[in-house]
């Protein structure tokens, strides 16, 4: 029995799809490969052949970059900032999305419009007033002050993301809990939170990646060397070692490695959670 025409057309189209995926993979991983090859070369070899294969792997570049760039302190500070940002964004966006979908709020359309506008506004418009306000409040040059800014910056998108996820969940689950006498907070924690956990994970990954890679606000609101995240530590190291591209590339690989590992470990949950949120709704 021959395959249906639609099945044959799909089979014929697969080589083209596979070729496109291979091209996209090379396009995405190409810069990472070039960065890694530059990190394991000598400075002279990087200048002579930046795209070529190293004649000898110089693994000492990583230990030198780790020590000279103080990447241990930078990564520890980044971990504190990322964890604080993720925790706050998940709590704020989760509660806000639940309120938008389940509670009888006045003019929810205005709130949605506000969130959409906030997500499109550049943060540069608020730098001057934020600097003045944060200095007055004593939040300037503190990691907590930077984390609070990240909460305000990343929570609107996460709220829209979780709202789209909550729309698809039937409200009957919560109604049964309310009949048993549970309050709104208990309903959210016991009933809603387990159901939207994939969306929470997706929001956490997006906010964590953004906070880890963010540069402008970190370099503006943090001045203490002991509080600088990895992105600023790498920038400062690059300023001092602008000619030694091997060491700069090694420090860049050290910075990229943690988030790359996290994303590779959680990529399936990330993609599944992002797809199931139904952002088109």
From TrEMBL:
Compartments (UniProt record): Cell membrane
Keyword presence, Cell inner membrane: no
Entry keyword set: Cell membrane, Membrane, Transmembrane, Transmembrane helix, Transport
A matching Pfam family: BPD_transp_1
Protein name: Carbohydrate ABC transporter permease
Domain ABC transmembrane type-1: 75-266
Record-annotated membrane-spanning stretches: 20-40, 79-101, 113-134, 146-166, 187-212, 242-266
The organism of origin for this protein: Nocardiopsis mangrovi
Organism superkingdom: Bacteria
PANTHER family: ABC TRANSPORTER PERMEASE PROTEIN MG189-RELATED-RELATED (PTHR43744), SN-GLYCEROL-3-PHOSPHATE TRANSPORT SYSTEM PERMEASE PROTEIN UGPE (PTHR43744:SF8)
Coiled-coil positions: none
Protein's membrane topology: Multi-pass membrane protein
Family stated for the protein in its record: Belongs to the binding-protein-dependent transport system permease family.
Major site of localization recorded for this protein: membrane
InterPro entries: MetI-like, MetI-like_sf
């Amino acid at each position: 029995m021959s395959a249906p025409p639609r099945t044959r057309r799909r089979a014929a189209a697969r080589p083209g799809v596979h070729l496109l995926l291979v091209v996209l993979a090379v396009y995405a991983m190409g810069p990472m490969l070039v960065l890694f090859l530059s990190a394991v070369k000598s400075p002279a070899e990087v200048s002579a052949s930046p795209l070529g294969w190293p004649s000898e792997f110089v693994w000492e570049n990583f230990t030198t970059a780790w020590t000279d760039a103080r990447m241990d302190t930078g990564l520890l500070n980044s971990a504190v900032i990322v964890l604080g940002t993720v925790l706050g964004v998940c709590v704020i966006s989760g509660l806000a999305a639940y309120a938008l979908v389940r509670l009888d709020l006045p003019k929810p359309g205005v709130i949605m419009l506000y969130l959409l506008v906030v997500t499109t506004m550049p943060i540069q418009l608020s730098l001057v007033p934020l600097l003045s306000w944060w200095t007055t409040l004593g939040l300037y040059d503190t990691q907590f002050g930077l984390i609070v800014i990240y909460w305000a910056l990343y929570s609107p998108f996460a709220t829209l993301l979780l709202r789209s996820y909550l729309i698809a969940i039937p409200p009957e689950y919560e109604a049964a809990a309310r009949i048993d006498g549970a309050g709104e907070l208990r309903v959210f924690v016991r009933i809603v939170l387990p159901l939207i956990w994939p969306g929470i994970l997706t929001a956490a990954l997006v906010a964590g990646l953004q906070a880890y890679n963010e540069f402008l606000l970190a370099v503006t609101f943090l001045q203490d060397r002991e509080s600088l995240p990895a992105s600023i530590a790498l920038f400062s190291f690059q300023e001092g070692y602008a000619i030694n591209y091997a060491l700069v590339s090694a420090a860049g690989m050290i910075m990229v490695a943690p988030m790359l590992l996290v994303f590779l470990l959680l990529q399936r949950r990330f993609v599944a959670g992002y797809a199931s949120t139904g952002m088109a709704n």
